Amino acid sequence: MTELVLTEGEEAYFREMRSLSTDADGRAILAGLTVDESVWLVEYRRRRFLQRSGKLQSHPSEDERRRAHELDEKHERVRLAVIGAEHILRTESPTRN
Length: 97
Prior knowledge:
The protein has 97 residues and is mainly alpha-helical. The chain is built from 3 helices and 2 strands, in the order αββαα.
């Protein structure tokens, strides 16, 4: 079974950014993505960090860049919707939240 494994720093960052969620089976995911998509995107971002820091010489293919962009867009739409919903709850019902 695939699982999203994050470093302590990654988890803290994703929580702060309201990026983490859980799927129907209780597994950690990036909001709006499946667990497989989440794992792929986190691994892609890790590779890109290593490439940009000069620790990895290979570069992503055009297909990888396209997929990363599509998953980022999908994730961001849901993440921003969650943030918007949280804001509405806090401002419209401040005594309950």
